[in-house]
Write a structure and sequence with these properties.
6 strands, six-stranded mixed beta sheet, single chain, globular, about 35% helix
Length: about 210
């Protein structure tokens, strides 16, 4: 089967990103910086850059994808399987609020591993399974093409671990940056990593966060 190249883009910075609040399946709007990041992504791509744009149906990802698509002319196709992990009762709260309101659940979440689900939420393994089913389906649908998927940090983490065979229970020792471009190759049922954490486009609009380095 011909290879599919999947450019996985994390959404721009949101209000809750800056406040340290857990977003999950809830949402918050892009900040002014987040919109500038999305505009920088749009300037990077042309109509020929990819054959299709897919996105999580959550507002922060879909708005980022919409801004890109205004430049490239693609229709954005939303898919709820590309959502971030559902963090249940933690959603909308910052770390201090979680520890204060739900101390037992917080400790269980920290120590529970990939199969632990926050009350009213889902486990990391459940999220990963949902994400990977969708991503593989899209890669097979577009064999021999380049596509874009605009999504979330947790989805990037799931795909990165799956591709490099890193246990879902292993501590995360890598970062995923807002508005980064991360390119994966899918061929004959196997994922490969081409590029990770590319944010060179942000420098052009002054949206590069030097705290990353």
């Amino acid at each position: 089967m011909d290879a599919t190249y999947v450019m996985v883009v994390r959404h721009g910075e949101t209000e809750w990103n800056t406040e340290g609040r857990r977003q999950g399946h809830l949402d918050s709007t892009l900040t002014a910086k987040g919109r500038a990041q999305a505009e920088a992504l749009a300037q990077r791509f042309s109509p020929e850059s990819c054959s299709a744009i897919y996105s999580s149906d959550l507002g922060r990802a879909f708005e980022t994808a919409r801004i890109i698509a205004e430049k490239t002319g693609h229709e954005v196709v939303p898919d709820e399987r590309l959502r971030e992990r559902n963090l249940g009762i933690f959603q909308g709260l910052d770390g201090e609020e979680i520890r204060a309101r739900y101390p037992r659940e917080y400790e269980e979440h920290r120590n529970g591993g990939a199969d632990h689900a926050v009350p009213e939420g889902e486990s990391f393994r459940e999220q990963t399974r949902r994400n990977m089913v969708c991503l593989e389906e899209l890669a097979k649908r577009h064999a021999g093409e380049v596509i874009m998927v605009v999504t979330h940090g947790g989805v990037l983490s799931a795909l990165f671990r799956h591709t490099l065979d890193i246990s879902l229970d292993a501590p995360r020792r890598f970062s995923f940056k807002n508005a980064s471009v991360n390119t994966f190759k899918f061929q004959d049922g196997v994922w490969g990593l081409e590029t990770w954490g590319d944010i060179t486009h942000l420098q052009r609009v002054g949206a590069l966060d030097l705290s990353y380095f």
